[in-house]
Model the fold of this input.
Amino acid sequence: MTTKELARLATQIENGAPLPSDLPVGEGLIVGITGPPGAGKSTLVDALTAEFRKRAKRVAIVAVDPSSRSTGGAILGDRIRMHRHHSDEGVFIRSMATRGAAGGLARTSMALSHLFRGAGFDMIFVETVGVGQDEIDIAAHADVTVVVLVPGMGDDVQAIKAGVMEIADIFALNKADRPGVEQTEREIEAMLSLGTTHVPVLRTVATEGTGVAELADALTGYRRREWHPEADWAIDHLGIAVRSLDEALPFYEAQLGMPSATRETVEHEKVRVAMLTVGASRIELLEPMADDSPIAKFLEKRGPGLHHVAMRVGNLNAVTTRLRDSGARLLGEPRQGAGGHTYVFVHPGSAGGVLWELIQA
Done:
């Protein structure tokens, strides 16, 4: 995949397109870089990138910035700060705006990370926006999370310990040439003594490259999470077979008070769909368009009722590969369905009698 092709695909994913169904899982390490504003996260990522390039590793960077109120785009422009890597074909840098998302990430940050890993990058750095103690989403997605702090934080260490302090796999005490580094290190270690897991605290001066090689060594000791690409499981919707949408919808909309459904026709499935939003999940009503459609056959055999359970997954390609390798029976290949999402069904015989639909998040 060329740099232009990768950039074009990244833009499509930022705009809501799914990951390619044929994208390899990849072996790269996703590294979350988080911490309070002013800790030097971008400078440290820049220094780590240079270090890993010396080691002949390909590096991708997802730099999340606050959104511009006027344009909605990223306003800090990490690509400017990392300009020395601009002409290096072994480095790919993508700045993206939060677009209102909380937790320090943009909504498609991790999808881009999986794209870059599948494209063969060895190290994928995800730098959070830098908003403070609520930046904990990164820990659920990255293989390893580095929390960057600076000397002289004092009571701030205690103030943020309920947030980013508790998600660290590694602490990078950056700007370690400043006064107060010993005191801050003691405060971190005192907090860590209350837990049961050892977390290394490494000193760095990113502007000079001090301690960067040691931090890179620590990162290489971590492995990609085997199930990480598939870890973002969540119920997407329940599919219910009905004989008529017009007859079924009044119960949900009028009697239950659910929002009005959006309707769509999926020609290749020979089905009409009405989708109702229920909090973070949905209910999908399915009406057959022809006697030979799967829904018509279901109704003939079982009558109206629950047809399938749909789950969102972080990397549909990785999930389907693992299922096939384990002997599970899939009903065809991933394809595009209602709402434009990519999906595949798992045969009930492989899933305890339940028809599962797996959807690319």
